[in-house]
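Thread amino acids onto this structure.
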């Protein structure tokens, strides 16, 4: 359990660092921003939104101090993006395109060499989680999600569904309440081997 709590604490630190640099990030032309405070991960909207979703859903597992840090990070993020609606929307769509390519490339690699690539599914599926976070965010006012995005995601999901083996949650079990199976089915199991094209 302490390992999982440590991961949540790490998320709090990363979220705060990402929020602090969000304004500068959105003003730049860099999609994967190297953060001054941390060596990894790189700052992206998807990375921030994924962690924000997880931490808000699991705030009962955080200390009072950590909950305050998360609330402060969310406030800093909201202030940064409130002045940059157009830039955020543009950057989010750029990242959606990149994450779609990344996710599809992983699934293609899995198709080519299942045994070599299946062990990295729990890491690779992070791209799909970020896609969910980005599309959910862009469907809230004042943003507009490009109408072509959801059909592209649905197409990849359909490709995966026919090759899907339902099973256990692929991430730390403590994160599971943040990701209900109905909405995040691709976190509950793994792709089948020897798929037929």
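Threaded sequence (197 positions):
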């Amino acid at each position: 359990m302490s390992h999982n709590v440590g991961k949540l604490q790490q998320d709090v630190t990363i979220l705060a660092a990402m929020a602090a640099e969000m304004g500068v990030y959105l003003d730049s032309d860099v999609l994967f921003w190297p953060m001054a405070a941390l060596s990894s991960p790189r700052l992206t909207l998807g990375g921030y939104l994924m962690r924000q979703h997880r931490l808000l859903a699991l705030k009962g597992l955080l200390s009072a101090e950590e909950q305050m840090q998360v609330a402060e990070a969310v406030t800093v993020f909201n202030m940064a993006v409130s002045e940059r609606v157009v830039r955020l929307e543009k950057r989010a769509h750029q990242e959606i395109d990149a994450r779609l390519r990344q996710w599809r490339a992983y699934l293609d690699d899995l198709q080519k060499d299942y045994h070599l690539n299946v062990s990295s599914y729990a890491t690779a599926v992070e791209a799909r989680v970020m896609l969910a976070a980005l599309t959910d965010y862009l469907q809230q006012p004042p943003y507009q999600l490009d109408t072509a995005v959801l059909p592209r995601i649905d197409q990849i999901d359909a490709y995966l569904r026919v090759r899907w083996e339902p099973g256990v949650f692929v991430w730390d079990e403590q994160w599971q309440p943040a990701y209900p199976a109905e909405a995040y089915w691709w976190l509950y199991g793994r792709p089948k081997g020897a798929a037929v094209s």
